[in-house]
Amino acid sequence: MRSSALFFTCLLLGASACAGSDDDGTSAASTEADSGSGDTGGSDDAVADGADDAITPVDGGESTGTVEPPPPGIACDSEFEYLGLVGCLSVVDGLDVKYFPLPEGTQVQRLVLFFHGDTGGDWFDDWGFRPEIMEWAQSQDMLVMGIKAPSMYDGDTEPSYGAAQPDHAELVTTTIETFIEQYGVVEERSLYWGISGGSWFFTSSFIPVAGARIPGIFAANCGGSGVSFGWTWDPATDTATRDLNALLLNYGDQDFLADPSQASYEEYTELGFATDQVVYPGATHCDHPIAEPTIAFWESQLP
């Protein structure tokens, strides 16, 4: 992006004016690759320092229409490899985050966020980041990320979104807002997918807290809360915000969370949200397609 801008500047000023110039881009700091565990050893301030200097307009007057490079984003505390991709593990606003940066200089069009199941095995071992979703998102310059739950059940030490409350939703929302700001994300609506406890969190308190601040299209797979609580906005009166959010319930009819999933579908439908559900006869907990219906629902809700 910057090389193109310098090329056109040189055409206007003359080749001699640009002799010997270099394209000195900046990149996020990184450290040695880690194993993908939740031990980050990072700092709360994970924002990368510095950015390419703005190109000076020709004649010192009005802008020539050159495009500024995107913001530098979030710095890696450590790196790991998954599906041939380089992932980053950092602590952002106090929460552990895994994310997959796009090539340097690429503008992030949209965030795609994974919310793991209870105990976080699908986050620690990375298998929750479905290959089909990763390929689909990266091909469209979307940044995939997943935040380790800041909540856990009483007497437990494992991260579980099924134990989350509105105050945890507030923490997660703040971290996502930092990503949006630091990457200069273009699109307002993010894409969300959850599994089990992560899906429970969507319908219980995350949409009630985050729906007005970081709205999006939610695919709740094999999980639902059956009731929502902690609303910070009113979907009945703030219909413009409500219409920025949409919800899919995707589950099996033999899932132990089938009843609350059905109840969440009915509640959000009655509240006026754009909703859909896919129910698999005979399927038990998460024993059914996840990626395909998730992507299909996202695509059905995007312009």
What would you say about this model in short?
With 303 residues, the chain is α/β, with parallel strands linked by helices. The protein has helices spanning 2-13, 121-124, 131-138, 166-183, 197-210, 239-242, 258-270, 291-301, and strands at 78-82, 85-92, 95-100, 110-115, 142-147, 190-195, 216-221, 246-252, 274-280.
Q: Which CATH class applies here?
A: Alpha Beta
Find the count of extended strands (DSSP E, 2+ residues). Answer: 9
Rounded to the nearest angstrom, the radius of gyration is: 21 Å
Overall geometry: globular
Report the β-strand fraction as a percent range: 15-25%
CATH architecture: 3-Layer(aba) Sandwich
Structural class: alpha/beta
Number of domains: 1
Largest sheet, strands/sense/barrel: 9 strands, mixed
| Total DSSP helices | 8
CATH superfamily assignment? Alpha/Beta hydrolase fold, catalytic domain
CA distance, first residue to last residue: 27 Å
- How much helix, percentage-wise, in residues? 25-40%
How does this model look, in words?
It is a single chain. The protein has 303 residues and is of the alpha/beta class. It has one domain (2-301): Alpha/Beta hydrolase fold, catalytic domain (Rossmann fold, 3-Layer(aba) Sandwich). Helices cover 28% and strands 19% of the residues. Strands 1-2-3-5-4-6-7-8-9 form a nine-stranded mixed sheet, with helices on both faces. A hairpin with a 2-residue loop joins strand 1 and strand 2 (85-92). Mean pLDDT is 84; it is low at 1-64.
